[in-house]
Design brief:
Elements: E1 30-32, E2 42-46, H1 48-54, H2 64-69, E3 82-84, E4 87-90, E5 93-97, E6 103-109, E7 116-121, E8 136-137, H3 138-154, E9 160-172, E10 176-186, H4 192-199, H5 205-219, H6 229-251, E11 253-254, E12 276-277, H7 301-316, H8 323-330, H9 332-348, H10 358-372, H11 376-383, H12 395-398, H13 404-420, H14 425-433, H15 443-454, H16 459-468
Antiparallel strand pairs: 1-3, 2-9, 4-5, 6-7, 7-10, 8-10, 9-10, 11-12
Helix pairs in contact: 3-15, 3-16, 4-5, 4-7, 6-7, 6-8, 6-9, 10-13, 15-16
Bound molecules: adenosine monophosphate and magnesium ion (MG).
Length: about 500
């Protein structure tokens, strides 16, 4: 039998198969409009890993049409560019209508991980731009790109980023910067705020029902046959959000703007703005310079997510018979969060089987770390090398703490706990190094890459992406990226300006 000729594939992003299931929701969900592309665009960054998911090459393609498409200069049929409308609570206050002020949904591609929506962020004004200019600057685009891919590599559910394209187009923020477009990828970009939009003021029950059915179809098929699908969906979203919060806390990630319009209905991390990874551990750490009250401080994130889930429940009420059922659907959030965080912390400590007292042991360490401002990632990474034998001093770890006696007391408990389950240090170290990252996207690393990129050198963005794509590997040649932040990092201010 002769082999079939293999046709030269169309780059999947420009191929004919380009459905947009979101558009099937109906005209009250969006406005169709073409992107306003970047003038004279160039590639800034490309994620080989995300590209592979989409069936694209590992390097930025030389195909000029792809550069055009991913800078907003080519969005012809069957692409169907549209901006969606949503509303939301910002900093705890109802903000009314918001929407995709600078993001456009192009449609979706089939991938081994299921259908993926493709979005351009920064490709011009939409009816929802309000006071904004529809643009995203290079600085914030690099931050979103790197964080999306870094979180994915850490195993935290997140929207992905395929590429950044840039341009000399000036954009006014605190100073004049230049414009960029990030191509984002996710199974769906639907937010809690999409539901709130159709529920607030005058509920549009029909639209809400369509939205619930749609989200169940694309992300929660197990809720389809429930007696009350909206209640089942609420509970499933609560559980997924709980697990996401446990993941954030366990890797020391602070989102910075957990408004309900920045909460993914699929439990993904979405909208990377003034986020941060913890350096010196401070549970009250506020990563967003504009968050004066500390509403979104690190330790508050799990409670804020629960608050946001109440806003979602409120939005679903027109579809739910009684308020009690909605509140009950949120209850599992608490147990799911606690159980997931306990499991994450046990893994971070290298404990094999759960025992009473494990939570106190983990909290004891976090308290010591907070008291002495020990570096979050470095402490857990060094903990892998903990020597549990009697009399071991564990100097590399101990040196991270100011109050050595207090650390020693904790270490004695930890050693006893490890011995109680016959833990083998070398095996435990391997396990721990698979959950405690050596490399996280600290602000100063992003800052260095951004400064080089603003000068026209994009190699540091790409290098950092590569390092962060294997955050659990030793990568001795890149050890400097795992170091303590330099003194100047304390003065980095990250605000909502993007
Ligand atoms: P964020 O808090 O960054 O997620 O954005 C909140 C809202 O402001 C969303 O509706 C965004 O689309 C919108 N927005 C933010 N920046 C801009 C911009 N430069 N142009 C248009 N809309 C924007
Ligand atoms: Mg947002």
């Amino acid at each position: 039998m002769s082999a079939l000729p293999i046709p030269t594939p169309m780059p999947p992003l420009l191929g004919p198969h380009w459905p947009n299931r979101f558009a099937s929701l109906g005209a009250d969900f969006f406005t169709e409009l073409p992107p306003q592309g970047l003038p004279d665009p160039h590639w800034v960054a490309w994620s080989a890993d995300c590209a592979q998911l989409l069936g694209l090459p590992g390097e930025p393609p030389s195909d000029a049409r792809l550069l055009a498409a991913l800078s907003g200069n080519l969005a012809e049929a069957p692409m169907q560019p549209l901006a969606s409308v949503y509303s939301g609570h910002q900093f705890g206050v109802w903000a009314g209508q918001l929407g995709d002020g600078r993001a456009l949904w192009l449609g979706e591609l089939q991938t081994p991980a299921g259908p993926m929506e493709i979005q351009l962020k920064g490709a011009g004004l939409t009816p929802y731009s309000r006071m904004g200019d529809g643009r995203a600057v290079l600085r914030s685009s690099i931050r979103e790109f790197l964080a999306s891919e870094a979180m994915h590599a850490l195993g935290v559910p997140t929207t992905r980023a395929l590429s950044i394209t840039g341009s000399a187009l000036p954009v006014r923020r605190e100073e004049i910067e230049t414009a960029a477009v990030v191509t984002r990828v996710a199974p769906s970009f639907i937010r809690f705020g999409h539901f709130e939009h159709f529920a607030h003021t005058e509920p549009n029950v029909d639209a809400l029902r369509r939205l619930v059915d749609f989200v169940i179809d694309i992300g929660y098929p197990e809720c389809r046959d429930a007696a009350q699908p909206a209640v089942a969906l609420l509970e499933a979203v609560a559980r997924r959000t709980a697990r996401l919060m446990a993941d954030w806390q366990a890797v020391g990630f602070c989102h910075g703007v957990m408004n309900t319009d920045n909460m993914s209905i699929l439990g993904l991390t979405i909208d990377y703005g003034p986020y941060g990874f913890l350096d010196a551990f401070d549970p009250g750490h506020i990563c967003n310079h504009s968050d004066h009250q500390g509403r979104y401080a690190y330790a508050r994130q799990p409670n804020v997510a629960f608050w946001n889930l109440h806003a979602l429940a409120q939005a679903l009420l027109p579809l739910i018979d009684d308020q009690e059922a909605a509140l009950e659907a949120l209850e599992p959030y608490k147990t799911e969060f606690a159980a997931t965080l306990d499991a994450r912390m046990a893994a971070k400590l290298g404990l094999a089987a759960a025992q009473d007292g494990d939570r106190a042991l983990a909290e004891g360490l976090l308290q010591r770390m907070a008291a002495d401002r020990a570096d979050f990632s470095i402490t857990f990474r060094r903990l892998a090398g903990f020597d549990s034998r009697d009399g071991a001093t564990n100097d590399a770890l101990r040196d991270l703490f100011i109050d050595r006696e207090a650390f020693d007391a904790w270490a004695r408990n930890y050693a006893a706990r490890l011995r109680s389950e016959g833990s083998v240090d070398a095996e435990r170290a391997l396990r721990m190094n698979r959950v405690n990252p050596k490399y996280v996207l600290r602000n100063h690393l992003a800052d260095t890459a951004i400064r080089a990129a603003r000068g026209g050198d994009f190699s540091e963005v790409q290098r950092l992406l590569k390092v962060l794509s294997a955050p659990f590997d030793e990568q001795p040649e890149h050890a400097a990226y795992a170091d303590f932040p330099p003194d100047w990092a304390q003065h980095i201010e990250v605000s909502c300006s993007s």
